[in-house]
Amino acid sequence: MKKHKILIANRGEIAIRILNACRKLGHEFVCVYTKEDAQSEHCTEALKQGGPNTLYRISSYQDPNEIFAVADDSEATAIHPGYGFFAEDFRFARRVVQRTRKLKFIGPSWKIIQDLGDKINTKRVARRLNVPTIPGSDRPIVDDLEAEELARSLFNFQNEQGVEQPVILVKASAGGGGMGIEEVHDLDRFRTVLRGIKNYARRQFRDEGVLIEQRIFDFNHLEVQILADSHGKVVHFGTRNCTVQSIGRQKRIEVAPGFYPQSISYAFDADKVLNDIIDYSLRMAREVGYNSIGTWEWIVSPMGNPFLMEVNTRIQVENGVSAIISRIGGQEVDLIQEQIRLGLDERMHFEQKDIRFEGLGIEYRILAEDPENAFTPWVGRIENFSWPDFPWLRMHTHIPRERAYDIPTEFDPNLALGIVWGQDLEQARDRGIRFLNQLVLEGRNYMGEPLKSNIQFLKENTRKLLVF
Amino acid sequence: MTEIDKQIQDLKERLQYIQDIFGNRENANVSLLGSKLNDFVQALPSLGPSQIKRQLGSLSDLFTFLENKLEKELTPMDRVRIVRHPQRICLKDILENVYDNYTEIGGQGEYSIDPSMIIARAYITRNVGKKIYKQPVMVIGQEKGHGQEFRNGGSVKPWGNAKALEYMKVAVTENIPIHTYIFTPGSYPVEDYPGAAQQIARNIYAMAGINVPVVAVISEGGSGGAEAIGLADTRIMLSHGYYSVISPEGAAAIEGRAKSGGRISPELVESCARQLRITAQDNLKMGYIDRILQEPALGARPEHFDFFKKLRQEVILATDEIILSVRGIKLFRAIALRKLNNPNIYVRWGLSQKSGERLLWRRYQKYRSLSQWAYRDSTPAWQKYKRAVSETSWSVYSFLRYEFFGRHQRAITHLAEDVQGEVHALFGRAMHKASRLLRKLPGVKNEKEEVCQLTTLSTWEEGMSWDEHCRYISPQANQDRTLPCPNTVKFNCLDLWAPDLFGDFAGVCSHCGHHFPMEYEWYLFNVFDPRSISEFSPRLESLNPLDFEGLEHKLDQAKKQTGHKSGCMTFEADIKGIRVVVAMLLARFRGGSVGAAEGEKFSRAVEQARRKHMPFLAYVHGTAGIRIQEGTNGLIQMPRCTLSVRRYLEAGGLYLVLYDTNSYAGPVASFLGCSPYQFAIRSANIGFAGPGVIRETTGLDIPPDYHNAFMALSRGHIQGIWDRREIRNNLHHALRTMGGEFLYYR
Which residue numbers in chain A have pLDDT < 50? Predict the structure, then answer.
């Protein structure tokens, strides 16, 4: 096997997980950090495991030019983008493989990132393969009359489906991240809303096309973990349920598998739904020639109808919760290691039938925030952070335990991930509560007020997990 | 002061004048005059009165003799000094001496919106037989005012030109001829509304359609300033004047900068003046003036009353000729012939409607036929023949399609629409009820289709075809390098990777929208429908008509570099299915400068659009102005192309102009600036003269964004600013909104 030097273009706990995976695979690594992150454990780990030449300070994680400068200076041969930042930036991925000094990009090929990053394209691929998508348009609608006709039929459709208060969404097709979206509750208001969105889209994106979709309420958020190599082999690592979220739609607890019909009763055939979304996801991954790790996100309506939402062409925060229930040859799986292997063009050395699933995993995202007050982030200094060691617990964090740590405000507020494994739902829940009870997270802000965390929120939600 | 003192003073002034004209040059004759005069003055106290008288007489004869001799030694640069000399005749002298009476309009010395532009209503009295006729004229011209500072040397500000235009229109209303007198080194290059370039464009465009006779007299014909009032039926040039695309100093500055980057030597100025062929003789030979009016030796000064008499006759004759040439009745032609020998026949100066139209047609033809020798058309004979045949058949087709058939069709369509409306009003209610009933019967089927549309793949043609566009990869995108955005300091833009920037972002900073320069090929592929471009007259070639030193080589280089034979590419292409004729000025070919070949191609493109009833787009990838090395051959393209444009617009055409990068000077001040729909890409700089020229001519230091598109928009020079990534959509939109139902032709 050729030895690589992998530049980790990310920070925090994922940087640590990637560098550990590199070490286990026998590759060298290079880490970067910015001045706000100097106290992060990912820097300490990098120095400890790789020596002084493996850590570079940069001014921003978002500037590709700096990343490439580091890559060239350190003679890296591959880049792992982690999640966030450049993970789903097809231009970055393209530049990695097209620049004069070419590198390996640990992730799907840039063309796939581009195609699946385009929501309209993804929806159209899905519909071509008879994969269910959210009812509504699958192309930008420019014509007002056409839009109104579509809106009318969407209201009719929902009435027929027995939806009591049908709502439709009008989105700017070029938009994203919640910009340029509005709800319409009755058809009479539609035209006004449409005008508004079109004007906004024309100003903001120079493209006045809109998408019109049904708004689905009270759904569960499910995911299918896919892994594929560049030689056409595609496998899955089961499903996850990520329904527990903050009001800003940020995930707080993820559970694998996605439903638990063994002890919870559902209004629909939960096993069938899980199998269906796995099948659909595999079908699409094969169709587009997917060649890395990736997640197919689904929403499942209270009636048990799944709809494809989007595809994440990257490693996700919650990959560990799928890994903890997956066994290959009796061994627990490390999906990041698998991703790196395939990213360096190795073949997948196992089949779907080699993958066994055991028990149930719960991942808690531990944050300093105030769930009672709209999940407002708490800013200050962590003085005491500790947890007990359990064989069934995996803890991922970049927060140092032996010294105080000021939470930087520039980045994602995640502090730690605690992944708990149990034989069944009962045991996993109990262990989860036990873990949360023994977890210590204390600190003060500059006004002397004590740290606020979401631990209580996590505990409360543990009881209700996987209940639809 | 005694008579003698006065005469001596006179001679001294004549000597001073001669010395001024000949500048620093050593000349035996000039020094001879100097020493003779000096000797005489020294000897004066010892001389008796008769001796003084005799010597003065011979001295005066000597002056006249040598002046005549020196006259033959005048270089082009000497002529430039003559017309700029404070003793040179000026417009006020002409008003006093050529016309019988006049009233100055809107000016009293320095109290005027622009003292360098004078408007006067004047008349000329003519005794024919027993009758006395007063023939009214509108006199318009620049005033240098014998060195009066507030006259600004005849350099007219935009509002001065606007005033001129206003009174040209008055002359049209009053149906009286216009006499213009050109005494300008060039226009004052400020952009304040109405804007130097845009106002000149407006003037030229208007003059292209003024249906009264226009006679222009050129003394100092400097560039755009001259053209602003110079589009005349007859152009008379004073023998000591000059008419040039740029002042010799300006040309030298441009040439000199290219060569050494240092100071400009007088020799270079002298050589530029010579090479630009700016004299009356040169311009007559090239055909840009109609005749020369001989001045007294070393140029006309206010005391040359004979000259004014000649000038008076000349302008009367010119006006008569114009009038007679367009009078409808054949009989008058005979008179016209006789008239040339007999100045006492009276010609009425008013024109009928029909004659006015003939006058315009004649003016168009006159300018259209100019500068034909200054380019080369190396199209093979059979292709030329083919072109002629196709042009004729297009004319016939267009006539049938739009004039003959179109008119009837429109009538029929309108009638049909009316009938439909009536029927609808009558049966609408009944139909509505019936259809509701119908819908209830097979209702289920209807709904199914709707659901289908909501959950399964729809057909989507439009977006797909754009993706499949035959892609153009900019050579700039094939480099692994990053470019800093100039707005980094202001907006924190990250450096841009060339393949992203030029391959995907159309050369636009994805953060702040800064436009980097993009080569014209990009537009060919990204604005027009794939494979829809068909170029015409590609073999029309730029030449070096004046044998200007070094131009040959530069042209060869440009031709090799671009693969084009001139700086103007003309083609037909589709924009989302709408066929347009396009003339594109290529920045890479000698800065996109316009010479005889470019002007001819532009005119032909306009004519093609007119013939085929298509919209016309001038896409200015960049233009530095008129190609100065072609001299007046280039300059004449300003009125020439504008006349074509006007003819096209009046026939109902839609003319769009799109500026991309730097667009300056002549073309903007004429055939581009006259479009009612001028748009700019964000990267454009639009103006009359660049910052260097402005500093040189006005002494003003302008801010760096003085000419940028947003400033141009706030001054009202252009009608909108577009993002480069949106050109295709915006053009299509513009074609649709400004075109209308019967696209482009009323």
Answer: none
